[in-house]
Automatic annotation (TrEMBL):
It catalyses: [protein]-peptidylproline (omega=180) = [protein]-peptidylproline (omega=0). The lineage of its organism: Eukaryota, Metazoa, Ecdysozoa, Nematoda, Chromadorea. InterPro entries: FKBP-like_isomerase, PPIase_dom_sf, PPIase_FKBP_dom. The keyword Isomerase applies. One of its GO terms (cellular component) is endoplasmic reticulum. The keyword Mitochondrion does not apply. It comes from the Eukaryota. This is peptidylprolyl isomerase. One of its GO terms (molecular function) is peptidyl-prolyl cis-trans isomerase activity. It holds the Pfam family FKBP_C.
Length: 266
């Protein structure tokens, strides 16, 4: 074999190794990602980033390959990247993906369900999680205004709907709301995304805390907001133990997913 051919083969091997490194990597804290279905650059018009709402197919397995759960062939799981709506490892694993891309992901326990595990799926404390994930679709928000109401409730439009396309929520309308709730120190409290189903209520009928009625009055269908509700308009001085201590201000990310006008229910 001549030297030129050997050189060419060597360069090819190096090139292949570099390409493999781009498709597979391990981060310092143990998160492992391998792209098993890449999307060509010319077909990848947008890559997922923090703030995007993503639609995801997933399969979760244990170390022996036994399936724990999967939604492939079913309704995609929907969440917003970087908002604490999923485990830390999944937030990172789904970042930088093209629509249609599929990855195998290994998430160490500290980036998964931590020391407590998740009893309903028989996930033990500090258990390593083995996922196959696919980005089905993504939505990138169009930020709007920020203001404070007379009651001291802070509202920020993280995705606004233009006036000519706005179906506005008014008293008596039925709202399908997706939400994530944290406390001021960042402690996660609850999320409709964990149930993969919206919270449904009638606006201004006392079905929710007063601050939420105020925060969603006049909201457009499809709009997303960050809302800070003072404890006086939340759960008050007593709170809602054990998750919500007394006098806790509430930090919500909310989406008005669907709006049903009162006359449409007939």
């Amino acid at each position: 074999m001549n030297r030129l051919l050997i050189l060419c083969l060597s360069l090819t091997a190096v090139f292949c190794e570099e390409e493999e490194q781009k498709l597979s990597w391990k981060e310092d804290d143990g998160l492992e990602i391998k792209i098993i279905r890449p999307i060509k650059a010319e077909k990848c018009k947008i890559k997922s980033q923090e703030g995007d709402t993503v639609e995801q197919f997933y399969k979760l397995s244990d170390k022996d390959g036994k399936e724990i759960g999967s939604n492939f062939g079913k309704k995609p799981y929907i969440f917003t990247l970087g908002q604490g709506q999923v485990i830390k490892g999944m937030d990172r694993a789904m970042t930088g993906m093209c629509i249609g891309e599929k990855r195998k992901v290994v998430i160490p326990g500290k980036l998964g369900f931590g020391d407590n595990g998740r009893e309903r799926d028989a996930i033990k404390g500090d258990q390593t999680l083995y996922y196959t994930v696919q980005l089905v679709d993504l939505f990138r928000p169009n930020p709007g205004k920020k203001w404070e109401t007379e009651e001291g409730i802070t509202i920020e439009q993280t995705h606004k709907i233009e006036d000519d396309k706005c179906r506005k929520a008014v008293t008596g309308d039925t709202l399908h709301q997706q939400y994530t709730l944290h406390l001021e120190d960042g402690t996660f409290v609850d999320s409709s995304f964990s149930r993969n189903a919206p919270f449904i209520f009638k606006l201004n009928t006392g079905a929710v805390i007063k601050g939420m009625d105020i925060a969603m009055d006049g909201m457009c269908e499809g709009e997303k907001r960050k809302v800070v509700i003072p404890y006086e308009y939340g759960y008050g001085e007593e709170g809602r133990p054990p998750q919500i201590p007394g006098k806790s201000n509430l930090y919500f990310d909310i989406t008005l997913e669907k709006l049903i006008k009162a006359n449409e229910e007939l």
